[in-house]
Write a structure and sequence with these properties.
Helix content is 24%, strand content 32%. It is an alpha+beta fold and 354 residues long.
Length: 354
């Protein structure tokens, strides 16, 4: 299903939940609606589903305006955060529920449920009840039930929120693979950026009811279009006095300019480890945090605080230790504009890894 949303607005009394949002979604794409809690993500999802009526604007499915269509006529499957399974029904009957409502034959229902049980890895659990399943298994039942009537659009409202971290990671991979196999257009809401980056083909960043940016995870990370997007995606340090850092003195010419510096923009080394020594600045290690595969290092350059990473393969640093730092680039912004500034003192661009 191809989706068009034009100038979508939603108000609840005096609260303006969604503000003039427009976007297109290509058929078969898996889209992540990402943003802070209360930003308007779920309101957009519920309007697409027909569970809320837009205050203004248009929702178009395959060229047809559906604002006035009831949910059951929109061809949508909905997966809720809390599963919303029928407790008195078995796995089989939960999955079959929508098919029975559509009055399909027993043979059709059995064929479809059997297929979905296999697809979602639930074979052998057909006769169990929800309370006999793990959280991950219950969520798989919810996916299967939503897919049973063969919807054209699958909507998921924070589908992994109620599941523990280890199972959540496994389900992310499973969901992406399953949707690729089924080929259904899908939109999921999340406030977890790692989840969105890992699962989604494209991400829409929603903040204060507005669409801040839409694009692939890589494009949004590499080329943020607003200070909010730059600070929301990935870890970073906000620097008020960017002109005090070596190579960025010219930034002082722009009044009110601040900078966002990502950890991977920073090269950290003991004396002699940084090749372009003339571009490096002295810094002090303030804190170290073990991250499993690397160290997160908190630094101070005078009054400026930065965070970066250091490989476990390199010599371990200590709090209070003097080091050298080279800032390769910074995301600069003020009240009027935003741009990326490369450090002119360095020679080769430093690659970005996410």
């Amino acid at each position: 299903m191809h989706i068009e949303v034009r100038n979508l607005d939603k108000s609840f009394g005096d609260f303006h939940a969604v503000r003039n949002v427009s976007f297109d979604i290509e058929k078969g794409k898996l889209i992540g609606l990402l943003g802070p809690s209360g930003g308007g993500k779920t309101s957009i999802l519920r309007m697409l589903a027909g569970l809320e009526t837009p205050t203004s604007g248009d929702i178009v499915f395959h060229g047809k305006r559906v604002n006035d269509l009831p949910p059951q006529e929109r061809g949508i499957g909905f997966v809720f955060q809390n599963y919303a399974l029928f407790k008195h029904m078995t796995v089989y009957d939960n999955i079959a529920f929508g098919l029975k409502v559509k009055k399909q034959s027993k043979e059709q229902i059995k064929e479809r449920v059997t297929y979905l049980v296999e697809l979602t890895g639930l074979k052998g659990f057909e006769h169990r009840y929800p309370h006999q399943l793990s959280g991950g298994q219950r969520q798989r039942v919810a996916f299967a039930r939503a897919l049973a009537p063969e919807p054209q659009l699958l909507l998921l409202d924070e589908p992994f929120a109620a599941i523990d971290a280890k199972i959540r990671t496994e389900l992310r991979t499973w969901l992406k693979e399953m949707i690729e196999r089924v080929g259904i257009t899908s939109i999921f809401v999340t406030h977890d950026q790692e989840e969105a980056i890992e699962v989604a083909d494209e991400i829409m960043i929603i903040n204060k009811g507005q669409l801040e940016q839409k694009g692939s995870p890589w494009d949004i990370y590499k080329n943020p279009e607003s200070p909010f997007v730059a600070s929301f995606i990935g870890e970073s340090s906000i620097v008020e006095n960017i002109g005090s850092l070596k190579g960025f003195e010219s930034a002082l010419k722009e009044a009110g300019t601040k900078a966002l510096i990502r950890p991977e923009y920073i090269e950290l080394g003991k004396p002699g480890e940084i090749k372009i020594a003339s571009a490096a600045m002295p810094a002090v290690v303030k804190h170290l945090h073990f991250r499993g595969s690397e160290w997160m290092v908190e630094l101070e350059i005078g009054t400026t605080k930065l965070i970066t990473y250091r490989s476990l393969e390199k010599e371990v640093l200590k709090p209070g230790e003097a080091v050298n730092v080279l800032v390769h680039r910074a995301y600069l912004f003020n009240d009027y504009d935003s741009w990326i500034m490369e450090n002119p003192l360095k020679v080769d661009p430093m690659p970005i890894h996410i």
